[in-house]
Amino acid sequence: MRAAGKILVSAYALAIYGFIFLPVVVLVLFSLQASSFPIPPFTGPSLRWYEVVLSDRRLMSALFNSVAVALLSSALAVALGFLAAWGFARHHLPRSGLMRGLITLPLTVSYLIIGMGLLIVFNWAGVPKSLIAAGIGHVVINLPLCFAIIYSQMGDHQVTLERAARDLGASEWKVLFLVSVPVLWPAIFASFFLAMTFSWDEFVIAFLLTRFDTTLPVEIWNLLRSGLNPRTNAIGSLVFGVSIVLALLLELVFFRRSR
Amino acid sequence: MTGPLPESVSGPLVEIRKLSHRFGTHKALNEVSLNIEPGSYTVLLGPSGSGKTTLLNIIGGFIRPTEGEVLIRGRDFTQAPPARRPTTTVFQDYALFPHLTIGNNVGFGLRMRGVPRAKRMARVKDALAMVGLADAVHKRPHQLSGGQRQRVALARALVVEPAVLLLDEPLGALDLKLRRQMQDELKALQKRVGTAFIHVTHDQEEAMALADHCVVMNDGRIEDQGPAERVYSRPASRFTSTFMGESTLLSGKILDLGMDEIRVDTSVGQLSLAGAGEPGFDVSLAIRPEHITLVPEGSSISLGEATITDIVFQGSFKRVLAVSMKDPSVTFIAKLRSSHGLAVGDRVELYATPADMVLLSR
């Protein structure tokens, strides 16, 4: 009876993990396909399609765009999120609870709605579709996240540290950069990497707000329109690899420390 | 006051004038005036909510008072932010910067003052040597024990040579043994550097051990201030007599006056003692526990019979509570030698010498 239960539990776990990871395994496996169609039988392994992808100028410039948008939009989202969190944590603001709610609200709104809203606003304001517009979109979705993470880590202990710095003669800017930021560094780092991860594979907003120069997810979508191809598997595997590296970095520098 | 004024050479180092502060409708401080002398060790003693921490925060610049002035070396600092005051603070949880080494923690204030690195490091070394932690320069705060962190906090605050050092319940986080040891070190350090210390505590033993000048606070006011010995032996108010050490309080009325003597009618009988006052005036008599005895000695008089309700063994003596037979609302607190064979429920007669009683009118 107990043995049967154990087998059942194991089978269930296997099914769950299979459900989650099988598509990725298939994607990566057929990126190593030697022939021209990513369907069984497997004819690899071969790095042929990675070569094709890495020498594709369009794909590589999209990759570079994605990295640039992710880095810059995340940095901006973290900076703004930190300042907002600091303001809310250190000053008595009127209707503080409501304002905090409003700033985190975009977390619950779908990217499609945010993207459409930005599209309309940019259209009206005469801002052309571009990587900058997509970057602004990513700041909009990531700022609430950065704010929430950093705000949750601001406690009373840091208030005393900031008081001590002021007491020893530090100006407000020095308090901020020599005490508040270094003390909150793990939270700042974590929110930066999380924002990077989200920006890196965000599709809807980038699709709506870019035109000629675009990000990698949009470029992959363009590829997919002409049908399945081991090329898309190869670039998909690369994207997946970068996401894994970001997640590992996050795990290493932040979650390890808080344990 | 506007414009720079010459720093006065004589006179108090810190002058607090009619300071009042409100938090909303709560009056945390009520017209407090206080002078701090150069080189003195002042202790602000009081229960929580007495306003002692608020007063310290106002001197340090963390709170702007609703009314009143804070003068340091004759200059008005009431509105100045903490960074521009000649004061530094040792915080209750030490507030060492966890991301900096001990050396950089201690050097922080000097860095803010633009002292060049080489000079800074030399002064940091001296300051750490002063508190006995010369070899901790490269360590981090989390590698030190509570007592060592306390010393680092002291070094960090003293290295910038403040006019006044403020200590906010600095020993509160330490265990009893370490607290007594740090008390001695604090006192010795203060004498050595000669900086005026203002130390906030609710621990009366700490206050008695440290204070040159003891300020007892209650309910936003100064109840009593003076040398610790005087405050203990001749408290100025009922509150002081029960907060700074224990006392039995007998309330009564002045009956009549004699030659330098008055007779007081209390619920346990009429007592004559030296003092002055007007007949009919309500007063209290405070008697310290060590002045109550079981046998008459010298000029002592009887306080009447009482029933023992509690005995606490405290080593060389026993702390005995006894309820008066004449007035059940009076509970005598006595410190009696442990050799007395006493038990709860025993009926005893208690004595005290009138000269040891303190006449209190408030």
The CATH first-level class of the largest domain in chain B comes to: Alpha Beta
The rounded distance between the terminal residues' Cα atoms of chain B is 36 Å
How many structural domains can be distinguished in the coordinates of chain A?
1
Number of H/I helices of chain A: 12
Give a quick account of the main beta sheet of chain A: strands, pairing sense, barrel closure: none
What is the level-2 CATH architecture name of chain A?
Orthogonal Bundle
Classify the secondary structure makeup of chain B into a structural class. alpha+beta
Can you tell me the number of structural domains of chain B? 2
Helical content of chain A, roughly?
over 70%
Q: Summarize the helix and strand pattern of chain B as letters.
A: EEEHEEEHHHEHEHEEHHEEEEEEEEE
Principal-axes geometry of chain B comes out as elongated
CATH class of chain A: Mainly Alpha
Question: Could you name the CATH homologous superfamily of the largest domain in chain B?
Answer: P-loop containing nucleotide triphosphate hydrolases
- What is the CATH T-level topology of chain A? MetI-like fold
Strand residue content of chain B = 25-35%
Basic shape of chain A: globular
DSSP E strands of chain A, number: 0
Contiguous low-pLDDT stretches of chain B (5 residues minimum) are: 1-8
Summarize the main sheet of chain B. 6 strands, mixed
